[in-house]
Amino acid sequence: MPYNPNTVPNEAIAALSGFFLVMMIIYLAIIIITFWAYGTLLKAALDQPKVMVLLLLIPLVNIVMIIVWGFQAHNILKKREAATGGDK
Questions:
Q1: How far apart are the first and last CA of the chain?
Q2: pLDDT in tens, 32-78
Q3: Quick one: angle between helices 10-46 and 61-83, nearest 10?
């Protein structure tokens, strides 16, 4: 059988698909851990429900929500600083 450079052996396809599957599992685990961490931060810092982090999945809304949460956190920090008399 002559060598044809345009064909890919089945073993290579199987190896690449296995690699792809492992990489997708790792990628999904990183995404889940990241969203869990953001949800925990939202709950602890802003008293928002953890499911609010799902707003980050919506395009354009995610940018707006990051800005809104940033201003909320800034206002909370200003109130805490005023309540403690400005001590650091």
A1: 79
A2: 999 999 999 999 999 999 999 999 999 999 999 999 999 999 999 99
A3: 30
The domain limits of the chain are 10-83
The burial class, CB within 10 Å (0-12 / 13-18 / 19+), for 55 is middle
Other Cβ atoms less than 10 A from the Cβ of 69: the count is: 20
CA–CA distance, 21 with 18 (Å, rounded to integer) = 5
pTM above 0.90, yes or no: no
Of 37, 48, 40, 39, nearest in space to 72 by CA: 48
